[in-house]
Design goal:
Number of strands: 11
Distance between the termini: 55 Å
Order of helices and strands: HHEHEHEHEHEEHEHEHHEHEEHH
Largest sheet: 11 strands, mixed
CATH architecture of the domain at 21-124 and 313-327: 3-Layer(aba) Sandwich
Helix content: 40-55%
CATH topology of the domain at 21-124 and 313-327: Rossmann fold
CATH class of the domain at 21-124 and 313-327: Alpha Beta
Radius of gyration: 20 Å
Structural class: alpha/beta
Length: 327
């Protein structure tokens, strides 16, 4: 098979699945540069999102004119600056007017500060975490990496939420029983490397039902997680080893380096989404290409649909469910 022709087939499949869904209403916070504005408009043109642009209207329209971006039919809510845009976008999510958020040209920390604010944010009881959904040309399926962008040095308890978030995202993407590899430098357990202790504990927690919906294995070194040959050499007998769907990294530094190594050395694309809030949050980068932006939006749309179906199953809309959790 031609590698170049098949490189994006995993993302193309995700985007194609959104064609049967209505566009997801999405608040785009401060889309005041060509990259973020074009990304929202392109996703709207593909029928994945219905964007509501939140930011200084005059600046947004100026960027659109200077870059030949058509804004006809797209709603704009005027907000004086990036802080106000973040707060208003989060308010739209909190009141149920949108089912997703998208980062514009403001800093990630600025948007997330509004998301996690105690009185006006959209936190739930679940820890907020980030997942890269990577399309790696040399790997046969999408590869999830978590957490490489939000939690710097997560505790064992925080890793429980991080892995559960990723498992539920995999379910939304029709991966029935995702295989979770808990990464460390080695595959043996030693007190000298704390991440191996966490890995062992997480696997036992999964056995006891504290983590559900996935198959967990760890500690595993990266080669044992993604290479059947490496797992066989080390005599690791596990349905996860060599065939992981999700890589749970020890900390943000390891995850960030891994994701960027795959992007820049293996020509992988990295769609990104934040989970654990009331709505999915699409984090895009100025370096993202069109397909990666589309894939991030598609993942958010599929996850938002899963949230709504789950809420409907218990007779609550997402905003009602979150209110019940706070009580």
């Amino acid at each position: 098979m031609d590698m170049d022709a098949s490189r994006h087939e995993k993302y193309d499949a995700l985007i194609a699945r959104c064609r049967s869904l209505p566009p997801i209403p999405t608040a785009v916070a401060h889309p005041c540069d060509a990259s973020s504005l074009a990304g929202a408009v392109e996703a709207a043109g593909a029928g994945i999102v219905r964007p509501i642009l939140v930011g200084p209207e005059a600046k947004i329209r100026l960027v659109a004119r200077e870059n030949d971006i058509a804004l006809s039919g797209i709603q704009i809510i005027d907000a004086a600056h990036s802080h106000a845009a973040a707060e208003k976008a989060v308010e739209l999510a909190r009141t149920g007017e949108v089912a997703a958020l998208m980062k514009g040209s403001l800093h990630t920390d600025e948007l997330m500060a509004a998301v996690v604010r105690k009185d006006t944010g959209i936190r739930t009881q679940r820890r907020i975490s980030h997942v890269f959904i990577m399309d790696v040309p040399t790997y046969p399926k999408p590869l999830f990496i978590t957490d490489a962008a939000v939690n710097i040095a997560p505790t064992l308890e925080e890793k429980v939420d991080i892995v559960q978030n990723a498992i539920e995202l995999a379910h939304a993407l029709r991966i029935e029983k995702p295989k979770v590899a808990i990464l460390s430098a080695v595959e043996t357990i030693t007190s000298k490397i704390p991440s191996t202790i966490d890995a062992a504990a997480l696997c036992k927690m999964a056995e006891r039902g504290q983590i559900t919906g996935g198959l967990l294995e760890g500690p595993l070194a990266l080669d044992n997680a993604i290479s059947p040959a490496a797992a066989a050499i080390k005599q690791i007998s596990s349905p996860v080893a060599g065939d992981a769907d999700i890589l749970l990294v020890p900390d943000l530094e390891a995850g960030n380096m891994l994701a960027k190594e795959l992007s820049f050395l293996a020509n992988a694309d990295a769609a990104g989404i934040v989970l654990g809030a009331r709505v999915p949050i699409i984090l895009t980068s100025r370096a993202d290409n069109v397909r990666t932006r589309m894939a991030s939006c598609a993942v958010a749309a599929l996850y938002a649909q899963a949230l709504r179906l789950a809420a409907a199953a218990v007779g609550k809309l997402p905003e009602e469910q979150a209110a019940a959790e706070r009580r």
